[in-house]
Amino acid sequence: MATPTGERAAMLSKLGLDRQNGATLGRLLANGNVGQAEEGPDGRMRATIRIRPDELIWDPSVLVLPHGGDLDLELLNDDLNTHCALLPSNGDSQFIWLVNHSRGTASLNLDGPGYYWFGSPTGNDEGRGLTGAIVVLGEVPPEARLDRPAQPRP
Amino acid sequence: MAEYVDAGHAVDWASLSGVVGSAPPAVQNVTYERILRARSEPQNWLTYYGAYDGQRYSPLEQINTENVRRLSPAWVFQCGPAGLEAGASTYAFEAAPIVVDGVMYVTGWDGWVWALDARTGQELWRHKHATPFDTSLCCGNVNRGVAVAKGKVFMVSPNAHVLALDAVTGKSVWDKTNGDVRAGESATVAPLIVKNLVIVGSSGGEFGVRGHLDAFDLETGEHAWRTYTVPKPGEPGSETWPADGEAWARGGGNPWITCTYDPDLNLLYFGTGNPAPDFDGEVRPGDNLYTDSVIAVNPDNGEMRWHYQHNPHDLWDYDSISENILFDLDGRKLMGHFNKNGYAYVLDRTDGALVRVFPFVDRITWGEVDPNGKVTPKVYPEKEGDPVHFYPGPGGGKEWTHAAYSPKTQLFYVPVQDVGATATRRRREFKESIPYWGAGVAVDSENMAGSVSAFDPATGQEAWRWRNEVPMCASVLATGGDLVFAGEPSGEFNAFNARTGELLWQFQCGSGHHSSPTTYSVGGRQYVAVPSGWGGWIEGFAPGMLAGTRGAALFAFALPE
């Protein structure tokens, strides 16, 4: 039986799907908080993502950008274990080690629209819950759109 | 609370590898004039098909019928990914490696491109265009290769960008968006350099887009022209679409394979894809120009000069995207094309006149094409909910993987797929970005066959055939050593005698072949390079091999030193 959206959080909690070693061994992917990047006057975006103690989840685990472009990211590891981040970016993915209680930064460039996964590629951090998504909103530039009348979308 | 430890700033993933970080400036002096004469420098593979004529033939003959049995791996480049990638179960290693003066440039899937030392396989640089995980990819996360010229490497990304990279560093020079991913567009084609232009085609025909080819200034990325393959109302060809409604706007026709080019006639020859929806023709009555056609296009302005439509009002997903191979016979300028519908076409490339048409696959039940090119459909999804079975299936008697032509033997060598399918028409409403097929389709996973077949274009007669139990789904390479190379879905990479079809040599690469092998030489030693990485639209062309082992390796073979 399907669960109405409004009851989703309660159902996840009831089933133990909102924590480590509850129903699952780890944490369902991209199932945590949703956050939005801020945009500066120059169009660059910035955001902070944390790793909460013993939760093995990015917070936010879904970061939403208003459009494609450059993102300045602050990464905080508040956990008591070492993790890392492999982040999508045009040209090459960006990597950083995040030892216990550390702060780092990353500069990303993404096109969008669409979404990209990022994760902590050590041990099975990615499977335990340290897999997050960066969502880029918006449309492609007008010159890249098809010459046709507006079409229906789902 | 203790202060945070300073973790610093994130670094390029490649910096934590053995990558050199730069390549010799081999591409600096690659010009249009050099590409025009590409076959005169056989040590290099300068452009997608090896030369503008699309023959996929190299005069190199160090490796030949007498010594090929001693061919061995010289090096292997492995490129398995880290992290999640789009279409994780459908990626394939499809590219044709380009080689310039000892440096190889090859794309992978998901936005990857590498520069390698063509003698040792050492990774010189890498570039990864970040690809949205949710990009619409009808037929796998794939890319077919690069173009190179004037110090730059050109490629497309799955999310429909056209990229120019510095050939020495792999860094971005320019980046243009060339398609609408929200409409279901993507890009998979290897670009072609003609004069000062980078020429590309679009992908996305299964999502009801409107196909187009585009040209960009290779230095600046400035958009030079766009030509749509489906006309708007009032344009020539629009009379082949319904006058009412917007079938034309969703009509498909994507030219998703690299064109060939005749510099004397100054014409590009693009194959175009299926109309959309693929199997429900009732919503698009008419011939549906210029889908399933070869179109001859002026590269200077994108103007269409002539067309020949192989499959008017296609009902079987029989794209005509396959290459048009240019060759001359008895003083006549011709082109050869092996269509998904199971027929081979020889056309006069000056005006598109049909010279000869003949079947190249055993089982053809969808209909027939008479010697004048007249098409008579027999079996097709006509009634809603009524399954029909036909040969070849939508993967075609031959799909995009390329044939070769040897001017030495004057034979075509064709990778043949003999597989049927059942389609059941199911009408659906069009919605942007949602697959728009108009049928449920199941391709046969049993009772399939394949071959590498040699044909004489002067007569249409089959000269020889090497039979396989499963379809042959990789491009063929012909060489001056009287050899024909072709890989199998089960991983074997084969060398055949070009005159007899005798299997002379075989190497198991560990994963199936769905790519385009090339050949080159460095320091006087000939190599044959082949990407091995089974994947793509397997359920369309060889579903009986859907669980074939995946891989991500590029092999280079040579004779022992």
What can be said about this structure in brief?
Chain A has helices spanning 8-15, 125-128, and strands spanning 34-36, 38-39, 45-51, 58-59, 62-65, 69-77, 83-87, 94-98, 102-110, 114-119, 131-136.
Q: Could you walk me through the main structural features you see in this protein, from its secondary elements to its overall organization?
A:
The complex is a heterodimer of chains A (about 150) and B (about 550). With about 150 residues, chain A is mainly beta. Chain A has 2 helices and 11 strands. Chain A has a single domain (about 25-140), classed as Sandwich (Immunoglobulin-like), CATH 2.60.40. Chain A has helices at about 10-15, 125-130; strands at about 35, 40, 45-50, 60, 60-65, 70-75, 85, 95-100, 100-110, 115-120, 130-135. In chain A, strands 2, 3, 4, 6 and 9 form a 5-stranded mixed sheet that branches. In chain A, strands 1-5-11-10 form a 4-stranded mixed sheet. Chain A has a two-stranded antiparallel ribbon with strand order 7-8. The longest helix of chain A is centred in the N-terminal third of the chain and has 8 residues, at about 10-15. The model of chain A has no long low-confidence stretch (mean pLDDT about 95). Chain B has a single domain (about 15-60, about 90-560), classed as Methanol Dehydrogenase, Chain A. Chain B is built from 2 helices and 40 strands. In chain B, the strands form 10 sheets. Chain B has a 5-stranded mixed sheet with strand order 3-34-35-36-37, with no helix packed on it. Chain B has a 4-stranded antiparallel sheet with strand order 4-40-39-38, with no helix packed on it. In chain B, β9 and β10 (about 150-155) form a beta hairpin. The longest helix of chain B has 5 residues, at about 30-35. In chain B, about 60% of the residues are buried. The model of chain B has no long low-confidence stretch (mean pLDDT about 95).
